C-alpha cells in the first residue's frame, strides 16, 4: 500500500493513474481539493477498489495518523503543495501553511508511525518528498546546470517554502534516521495541468482568441519535462533510490518561454486552424513577474547513472501529445474554470500593463 498526498493535482493524478495502470498495489490518496485539486482527474478510477480517495489536509495531524494506522503504507509520496509562483507573490501565507507546516506535520506523524513498525517494515519504509529545481535559484546563461550539490538560493515565496520543506526532510533524516528520498524536478507539462501555468494557459487563451501574455522579454529559460517521464522517475527513485539521497529530475529541454509559446501556436495552427490568422498574432508582452528567475536547468545525470532513468519523450513528442490532449478534452478545461479561476486570472493579469 502507498499513501500519496496531493494525488488529485496535476502531477499527483498522473502518478496515481500511471501507478494503477501498471501495478496491483493499492493507493490511498489524501488531497485537500484546493482550487488545484480536481476529482475529475481521477474519474477513470471510479469503482477501482485499489484506489481510495480521502479528502483532507496534510497539516491535520489526527487525520494523517489515522490514515497511517488504518492503511499501514510501505511508503508515502508527498506531492501536496501550493505550487504556483504567481500566487505565492500575491498571497505567501498559504504556501507556508501547506508546504512548510504541512510537510513538518506529515514528517512528524510518519516518524511516530515508522518508529512503531517491526524491523523488516522499518527497513523497507520510504518517505519520498517531491520538490522543485526552484530551490536552487536562478542561473546565468553560461553557468552549468543544477546538480544535487548546488547551493540553495530560493527567490520566490513558493521556492522559499519548498526549500524550507526540503531542509526539514533533510533534518528528519539526519536527526531521526527517517528513510527519506527527495526529488528536485524541473518544469512539468502534459495532460491535466491547471491552466494557470504557462503551457495550458497559452493553449486555453489561444483557443479562446485571447491575448497570450508573455512576462517581460520572454527569454526566461525553463527545462521542460513531460509529466509521464517525471512519474517514471519517481517510481524509479521509490524502488531503488538510496535513503537520505536527493535526485534531480529534468528533461534536457532548456527553452525560452517565447519559443515554447511559438511552438504551441504552430501546433494549434496545424491541429485547430483559426480563420482569424496564425495564433502567434495573439502574443502580447506584459509586465514581468517580480523577482522572475532568468534560467533553470537540471543536470539529471545522477538519476541516469544510479537508476538508469532517462526521459522517454522529446519536447517535440511531448508537446504534441499535450496540445492534442487539451483539444480532446474541452470539458475538462471548462470544468476547472470556476468563478475562482476567473477571479485569479482577473487579479494576476489586470495590473500587468502591456510592455
Ligand atoms: P498542483 O497545484 O497541480 O496540485 C497540488 C495538489 O495538492 C492539489 O490536488 C491540491 O488540492 C493538493 N493540496 C494542496 N494543499 C494541500 C494540503 N494542505 N493537504 C493535502 N493536499 C493539498 O501541483 P503539481 O504541479 O501537481 O505539483 C505537485 C508537486 O510537485 C508539488 O509539490 C510541486 O511543488 C512539485 N513540482 C511541480 C512542478 C511543476 O512543474 N508542476 C515541478 C517541480 C516540482
Ligand atoms: O521549475 C519547477 C517549477 O515550475 C515548479 O516548482 C512550479 O510548481 C511550477 O509552477 C513551475 O514554476 P514556473 O514559475 O517556472 O512555471 P509557470 O508555468 O508559472 O511559468 C513558466 C514561465 O513562463 C516562467 O518564466 C513565467 C512565464 N509565464 C508564466 C505565465 C503563467 C509567462 O510568461 N506568462 C504567464 O502568463
How would you name the oligomeric state of the polypeptide chains in this document? single chain
Mean pLDDT: 96
Radius of gyration: 20 Å
Small molecules (ligands, ions, cofactors) in the structure = nicotinamide-adenine-dinucleotide, 2'deoxy-thymidine-5'-diphospho-alpha-D-glucose
Order of helices and strands: EHEEHEHHHEHEEHEEEHEEHEHHHH
Strand order of the largest sheet: 3-2-1-4-5-6-11
How many alpha or pi helices? 13
For the termini, the CA-CA separation is 51 Å
As a percent range, the share of helical residues equals 40-55%
Biggest β-sheet, characterized?
A: 7 strands, parallel
* Alpha-beta content class: alpha/beta
Strand residues, percent: 5-15%
Spans where pLDDT lies below 50 across 5 or more residues: none
The coarse overall form would be globular
The number of E-state strands comes to: 13
3D structure, described in words:
The protein is an alpha/beta fold. The chain has helices at 10-22, 61-71, 85-90, 93-115, 119-124, 157-176, 198-208, 227-240, 257-271, 301-307, 315-328, 330-336, 339-350, and strands at residues 2-5, 27-31, 51-55, 75-78, 126-132, 180-185, 188-189, 212-215, 221-223, 225-226, 246-249, 254-256, 283-286. The protein has 13 helices and 13 strands. Helix 9 packs across helix 11. The protein binds nicotinamide-adenine-dinucleotide and 2'deoxy-thymidine-5'-diphospho-alpha-D-glucose. Residues 5-6, 8-12, 30-34, 36-37, 57-59, 79-81, 83, 98, 102, 130, 132, 162, 185, 187-188, 194 line the site of nicotinamide-adenine-dinucleotide (NAD).
